[in-house]
Amino acid sequence: MSAYNNTQYQAVDNYSNVLQQNKAQNRRSKWIVIGSILGVVALIAVGVGVGVSVSKHNKSSPKSAAVSNSGSNSSGVVPQTDPNDPSTFVKNPALKQSFYGLAYTPYGSQLPTCNNSLADVIVDIQLLSQLTKRIRLYGADCNQSALVLEAIKQTKVDMKVFLGNYPVPSDGGVAYVRQRDLIKAALQTYGADHVAGVTVGNEFILNYLGDNGGTSQDPNSAVGNAGAALLLSNITDTISMLSGMGLNIPVGNADAGSYFNTQILSAVKYGMANVHPWFAQTTIQDAAGWTADFFATTNVAAANALSNKPTMYIAETGWPTKSSSVAAESNGAALASVPNLQIFLDTFVCQANQNGTGYFFFEYFDEQWKDVQFGGVEGWWGLFNADRTLKKVTIPDCAAP
Ligand SMILES: *[C@@H]1O[C@H](CO)[C@@H](O)[C@H](O)[C@H]1NC(C)=O
Ligand SMILES: *[C@@H]1O[C@H](CO)[C@@H](O)[C@H](O)[C@H]1NC(C)=O
Ligand SMILES: *[C@@H]1O[C@H](CO)[C@@H](O)[C@H](O)[C@H]1NC(C)=O
Ligand SMILES: *[C@@H]1O[C@H](CO)[C@@H](O)[C@H](O)[C@H]1NC(C)=O
Ligand SMILES: *[C@@H]1O[C@H](CO)[C@@H](O)[C@H](O)[C@H]1NC(C)=O
């Protein structure tokens, strides 16, 4: 699942980037668990079909109107004893710092609109910091790295962020360089005290294989290695940028759990793997166990076989609470509902903490732009609703590391 970002751009280039990412996102959902499921070829066909139809839809109506706009106005959601001091926010006893980490994309951080705001991000950080000490971003466009670091500064919370750079395989490096420079500027302003890492690449190999792979879905195929060579140049460039700034910040990569290329994993300090029981079509009862098993046998095992032994995290895991279409309400044995999110919270969070697993729960709040673009369950994975009210769940109570 992705975040689209951007700032300065040429309308045409940028628009096609967004379309690219749209297609990629749809494919991701379908491909995430390939290797453990049947019907691979059929799924690919569906994924590509959906991507194409999304693109066409977007082309014919670039500004699909009448989108109600919950999620933007955060004022009054978190009380402050001093309205002018964001660090005086009042804690909500329903929230517990039980999560290792959370996946977060600030509202309005997608091109071409870029209508995020520091006020919104401050409220998000006030809420997120009551659940976790770590968040991860997906990209850097729309100044989101600086906004998050500024919000951490103003709220004075104990929070580290994995910044993200979301390169586009086919754009000649435009998205990569644009985001690199935003990350650099944010680090120059805020330093590295609250930065846990810089993640270069989100589902890059998954997308690259989808665009170029034909029938091969092996991340270590010749096509996978060609994609890896592109991304490796970005990873190397970020490593040298950081060392040139005198900063010792780990550089990592995020991809779908089945899509780690060995050359990439050999070049990074950490890997973040999307591991989604929903897309594996498990029952909710099996979801937590499936996630733990997949991550251990696929991702941790692969990393431990390498001499650099990158640290592995679960980049995304979670459960959707509803679908915008009846057809997508279930996926095999997986059924979208708030009670099922509760079961996943109850069976995954404290157990993963206990097991020493680093994970980023997916995700902070419902993202309406995803619902508009993709429909189905895509917009409904939040712990919070789009208006930043907590869904009808009980947050597990166990201190995360
Ligand atoms: C942000 O931009 C999106 C996309 O154009 C729009 O739907 C939404 O209403 C805007 N939100 C705000 C708060 O301006
Ligand atoms: C945001 O919400 C607050 C409280 O609900 C309301 O007073 C304010 O007018 C809203 N602001 C905008 C710009 O919608
Ligand atoms: C980015 O955000 C920071 C923090 O709010 C702000 O100081 C800076 O001016 C912003 N830069 C741009 C280009 O918006
Ligand atoms: C970053 O990767 C892109 C492909 O995604 C490539 O075209 C570009 O040359 C790379 N840029 C740098 C500076 O490494
Ligand atoms: C935790 O570890 C136990 C024992 O290996 C395993 O059965 C369980 O699935 C794991 N759960 C999570 C959420 O990591």
Automatic annotation (TrEMBL):
It is an enzyme of class 3 (hydrolase). GO terms for cellular component: cell surface; extracellular region; fungal-type cell wall; plasma membrane. Pfam families: Glyco_hydro_17. Residues 64-77 have a biased composition (Low complexity). The chain crosses the membrane at residues 31-54. Its EC number is 3.2.1.39. It is found in: Cell membrane; Secreted, Cell wall. One of its GO terms (biological process) is cell wall organization. It catalyses: Hydrolysis of (1->3)-beta-D-glucosidic linkages in (1->3)-beta-D-glucans. Residues 57-86 are annotated as: Disordered. It comes from the Eukaryota. GO terms for molecular function: glucan endo-1,3-beta-D-glucosidase activity. It is a single-pass type II membrane protein. Keywords: Carbohydrate metabolism, Cell membrane, Cell wall, Cell wall biogenesis/degradation, Glycoprotein, Hydrolase, Membrane, Polysaccharide degradation, Secreted, Signal, Transmembrane, Transmembrane helix. Belongs to the glycosyl hydrolase 17 family. Glucanases play a role in cell expansion during growth, in cell-cell fusion during mating, and in spore release during sporulation. This enzyme may be involved in beta-glucan degradation. Active on laminarin and lichenan. This is glucan endo-1,3-beta-D-glucosidase. It comes from Mycena belliarum.
